Write the structure tokens for this entry.
Amino acid sequence: MNIAIRLGRTRLVMAAGGLAALALFAWLIAPAGSSSARAAHDAAPAAVQVDAARVTRQNVPVYLDGLGTVQAYYTVKVTARVDGELTKIGFTEGQQVARGQLLAQIDPRPFQAALDQARATLAKDEAQLADARKDLARYVILEPKRLASQQTVDTQRALVAQLKAQTEADGAAIENAATQLSYTRITAPIDGRTGMRLIDPGNIVHSTDTGGIVVLTQLQPITVIFTLPEDTLVAVADAMSHGQVSVEAVSHDEDGKALDRGTVQLIDNQIDQTTGTIRLKAVFPNPKLALWPGQFVNLRLLVRTDASALTIPAAALQRGPQGTFVYLVRPDSTVTAQPVTIANNSETIAVVTQGLEAGQQVVTSNAFRLQPGARVRVLSPEHAAGDAASAARAGTAGHRAS
């Protein structure tokens, strides 16, 4: 039994020694350079995966941003111009009405009677004038024969003139009565939308009433009053001197939805010294009624377009102690910190005036993992370039004028 145990242990020792000898032999015959290559590979830092975009030239519109309030193009408080009973309302609250459309009716009977009376008075005075003219003609024939005195002829001429003046006054009275009668039909002075009815039929209205019958507002077109910093006055005035200045109204919420596009109509004639701002008025066609009086909106005013400007995605910009820079991708797939000068920039695109050339590649992601000389591996550079171009086209809005 002891002999068998000793033989087993001897075999295990011999097997372990054989394995050790084989491992030593494999290490001795391995190529000398392989270990150094592995060591170098382990020591070299891995390339940082980044997105990159090309520096491109394109036309970049430059905008000014402002905050404005929508106002009706015209606002009319419709009131009565004569006294009387309001017998009819000819509109529905909130209705779009056309100019000349009936809005309210005042009892016309007293005014019709006054007009008829004025016409009757004119007819009476015209008859008297005709008779006086015939008498004057007779006196003129008799006066050379001394059958009528000169005084009689002169008196008759004065009577004719008096009656003629009276008929003219009667004509004016008729016009006044007709005007008063027309005021009993209250019509829309403009195209617009009615508000809430301010008085009901059956009430007595007066020309001195201040409450009115309804407020009418014109919404198509519509205006927006907005403000800009006073230091932008020169840029806006220069843009307006070259033609119409386009302006876009954008919703005031987080979505920033475009509501309508119009033109700047005027710049106010003075600067508000308390706020250092200048007021402007813009007019919008408002075909979909997206703009409503009293609404707050953001305004983007196009002041100029920079032609063939060098552009990069705004994500490529970095800030350092020495100023703004980008990580420029070299042909050997390393990066260098390249200082740049920026003219305009928004959330998506920046215009470069110095430091880069068209066609160069700049890093747009993972910049926090980079340092000058770091190796990079660009992921889908073609796709990145396409994204940069798309961002450039979509991100030009909001550029501040320099």
Notes: Residues 1-10, 24-35, 382-398 have pLDDT under 50 and may be disordered. The helical segments are 2-29, 32-43, 109-142, 150-182, 233-241, 381-394.
